[in-house]
Design goal:
By secondary structure, the chain is α+β, with helices and mostly antiparallel strands. The chain folds into two domains: 250 residues, Alpha-Beta Barrel (TIM Barrel); 82 residues, Sandwich (Immunoglobulin-like). The protein has seven helices and 20 strands. The protein binds zinc ion (2 copies). One zinc ion (ZN) binds next to loops.
Amino acid sequence: MQKKSKLYEYVGIIHIHTTDSDGTKSHDDIIKLAQKYELDFLAFTDHMNLAHKNKEGWYNKTMVLIGYEHEDCSEKNHYLIFGLNKPLPDDLDAKTYVKRVKQVGGFGIIAHPDESRNFPKFPPLPWTEWDTDEFDGIEIWNHMSAWLEGIAEGNKLKYLLNPRKLLSSPPKHSLITWDKLNMKRRVVGIGSADAHGFRLKILGLFWRTIFPYSVELCSIRTHILTKRQFPRDFAPAKNQFFHTLRQCRVFISNHRWGDARGFRFWAESPEKYAIIGDKIKFHNDLWLFIEAPEKARIVLIKNGKKVDDAEGKFARFQAKTPGIYRVELWKNEKGWIFSNHIRVHKTSRKRNKKSQ
Ligand SMILES: [Zn+2]
Ligand SMILES: [Zn+2]
């Protein structure tokens, strides 16, 4: 069997707004907070704005990336874009900006893909342009969007007063969309804060910050696993970061239910070893292993459907047929950890030279 390699884990927050658009704190203030929480990376994405692109770099152990959030003329089809020095023109349709990002070797993530809302003050901003397959990733859990999806006139006060309690799991429809995409090709699923530090006046009486940055940095986190440590030289470190995302060596967690650092999901046959994001050839003796830092209900999902589950800090399931496998870890009915897929394929990956 292939030798298991040591993995380096980097934990951080993707999708953060600052005072450059509709956020309420500066880059510097948010970076200081991230250092307090020992986060390894922050990915800022202000709306149509790259004014502080020069903030990119290492801040001690925290890697800071500056992208932006593009939207179309109808304010829909929000796309997190990295790798550009200035925003693309604001009159492009979604398919075109997805293409442009790909052409220049950038990285793009579809934000809040299937958003639906029941609250007229904040209409939904879903992704509608699915006639493209050139995006790199999608958000499977957007903190702000998941909260707004649950809010309606009747429960408004409950949502405003207990915003964190109501965040229980990624929206089912986002997971379905993501699994379907991955049946065709590799699309990384990331978790996002969509942090703004919004202040709202409640009942016209008092101001309250719904999700202060200090809460956003301790909720939906994205974990990245690499076989090589990120170098201190920023440019290659940044390349490695996006390369690892493309490989789907990623899981997401809600930090509120426990520190998920150390979670691992891997596959082993007598011949091969694979980690999250990898492909592995099917074998009659192929097993999937899960190791968690704390006890949880571990659910195995194959091709979008639950196929097995177990309780504990460790689980082992046989992969009985080829398909795409991922795991979800739940604590008291609250979603804690969501892995990207391991792809179990049927035939050997020798190139088929036959033209079609
Ligand atoms: Zn957005
Ligand atoms: Zn946003």
